[in-house]
Amino acid sequence: MEEGRFLQWGVFRSLLAILQWWGFNVTVIIMNKWIFQKLDFKFPLSVSCVHFICSSIGAYLVIKVLKLKPLIAVDPEDRWKRIFPMSFVFCINIVLGNVSLRYIPVSFMQTIKSFTPATTVFLQWLVWRKYFDRRIWASLVPIVGGILLTSVTELSFNMFGFCAALFGCLATSTKTILAESLLHGYKFDSINTVYYMAPFATMILAVPALLLEGNGVMDWFHAHSAPWAALIIIFSSGVLAFCLNFSIFYVIHSTTAVTFNVAGNLKVAVAVLISWLIFRNPISGLNAVGCGITLLGCTFYGYVRHMLSQQTPGTPRTPRTPRKKMELLPLVNNEKFDDKVDFNT
């Protein structure tokens, strides 16, 4: 009886974690799109900078003031040699996501972001010469095919926004790959990752945002009918962006790897549906099919990754014998990332 109640509580806890993760994620995406489209605040660098500032403050409060999470100590030299390069890629990733959201619909942007597994595998194969099981390559086929179909049939296609989203995938993949080497020896969770990276990202982005968008922001402020109310919405999106990272930490530790993967892809579907209900961007039948194929492909990819990780060390994965020990390295160290950070995806 006691065991049954414990199991029910575990299921309820996992469901609650997933729902609050979905809630924060979809809300941040919709708010960012609302800021760009409805508030006419067309300054993605400034929005990203606000998110970094809010996240820096939020992580400091959680770790230093409220002490809800222990601080993972990092050597001062490692902060510049390891954390700073990661922060630079992290900054580019977030900025490109907001830039793409400025020019293309949420549905299209979210579908392109699902291309990240393919870019990660391709980069590790091309640059790092890592070996991957042929089942991994096969699982990428529906992802690539779905992206192509979605791109060809997108009614609100914008080349600049498309390129920003695509390069955002490459930045995400690069961050994932660099994390394996640069953060080796540190077991970061999402809150500690934000604590160390968000201040660096603010430093990196503050000057470009001021130089490129400063005058435009001032003109917008004087021309807008209710600038203070709009600024409250903009800074609220920054607070929710930090809450999203806190929710990622919660959901990672409340679900299994398979559940996390499936929930992540369903989250994209929910974001696409809700954004369409709010913004009513035109979506053709083939476009919806392409999005569905991409999400199913991502789910299948996650399933293949999980199945391969469950194989015993002596189980053959392919007729070809790896030539080097490096070829046996997995795509990532764990199926779920404690250092996964999200601001707009």
TrEMBL record:
Q: Which GO terms describe its cellular component?
A: membrane
According to the record, the segments passing through the membrane are: 6-31, 43-63, 83-104, 136-153, 159-182, 194-212, 228-251, 258-279, 285-304
Topology in the membrane? Multi-pass membrane protein
Q: Which SUPFAM superfamilies match?
A: Multidrug resistance efflux transporter EmrE
GO biological process annotation, one example: nucleotide-sugar transmembrane transport
| Annotated compartments | Membrane
Please identify the protein, giving its name as recorded.
Sugar phosphate transporter domain-containing protein
Which intervals hold domain Sugar phosphate transporter? 15-301
Q: Which InterPro entries match?
A: EmrE-like (IPR037185), Sugar_P_trans_dom (IPR004853), TPT_transporter (IPR050186)
Q: Which UniProt keywords apply?
A: Membrane, Sugar transport, Transmembrane, Transmembrane helix, Transport
- Keyword Membrane among record annotations: yes
The entry's family comment says: Belongs to the TPT transporter family. TPT (TC 2.A.7.9) subfamily.
Q: What is the originating organism of this protein?
A: Gossypium anomalum
